[in-house]
Amino acid sequence: MEIQNLSLEGLKLLVPRQFKDDRGFFWETWREGMLLDEEGSPLRFVQDNLSISKAGTLRGIHFQRAPHTQGKLVRAVSGSILDVVVDLRAASPTRGQVLRVELSALNGHQLWVPAGFGHGFIAREDETTVEYRCTATYEPEYEGSIRWDDPDVAIDWQMEALREIGAPLLSEKDAMAPLLKDIDWPF
Q1: Exposed (0-12), middle (13-18) or buried (19+): which is 162, by Cβ within 10 Å?
Q2: Spatial distance between the Cα atoms of 185 and 80, rounded to a whole number of angstroms
Q3: Which residues contact 118 (CB under 8 A, 6 or more apart)?
Q4: Fewer C-beta neighbours within 10 Å, C or N terminus of the chain?
Q5: Does residue 99 contact residue 158 with C-beta atoms inside 8 Å?
Q6: Is pLDDT above 90 for 151?
Q7: The whole model's pTM is what?
């Protein structure tokens, strides 16, 4: 597994070594000790989540506040997504900046999103299945979100090809999320 540091500190792209033959392909998706926490200990995941989405479904941008902050290891099991993170760390030199990564079942890439970032994605294909492993359990009273189309964040969701099918498809909660300027910096 190749682990690449990305432009926003703490974010990592995990690129698997793929073994292909006439039957298909194989790769390792996780091994304990592959990623370490801030103290240098192996990451410990306590909750796995799975979503299945229609093309054009936009989920996010979500985070959890302390003391239940979550790190997430995200991958597309089927289909493909444009995965988006926003740096929400108040003291970060990249505060408010956005990073986008394509994750697909074919490329096998995974994105490590540590606590301190808002996270969301848009499904590019029908029946896109996304799995994310979390370092803390979901605690609804600590969840937060920012609006997907916040003009100050200005995320390019690359959905031009998906507009004809009604993209973005949003939950009511995501459609009503506050703007970044209207929330307290959670980290």
Answers
A1: buried
A2: 30
A3: 60, 61, 62, 63, 85, 86, 88, 144, 145, 146
A4: N
A5: no
A6: yes
A7: 0.94
The helix/strand/coil state of 90 is coil
Which entry of 109, 119, 132, 138 is annotated as an active-site residue? 132
Determine whether 132 is an active site residue: yes
Cα 86 to the center of its chain, rounded Å: 10
Is 119 annotated as catalytic?
A: no
- What whole-number distance in Å separates Cα of residue 97 and Cα of residue 92? 10
pLDDT at 184: 87
Per-domain boundaries in the chain: 2-18+34-182
Q: What three-state secondary structure class fits 47?
A: strand
For residue 92, what are the contacts with CB-CB under 8 A and spacing of at least 6? 9, 116
What is the CATH class of 2-18+34-182? mainly beta
- Residue-wise pLDDT for 64-114, tens only, equals 999 999 999 999 999 999 999 999 999 999 999 999 999 999 999 999 999
10 Å CB burial of residue 95 (0-12, 13-18, 19+) is middle
Reported as a single tens digit per residue, the pLDDT across 1-46 is 999 999 999 999 999 999 999 999 899 999 999 999 888 999 999 9
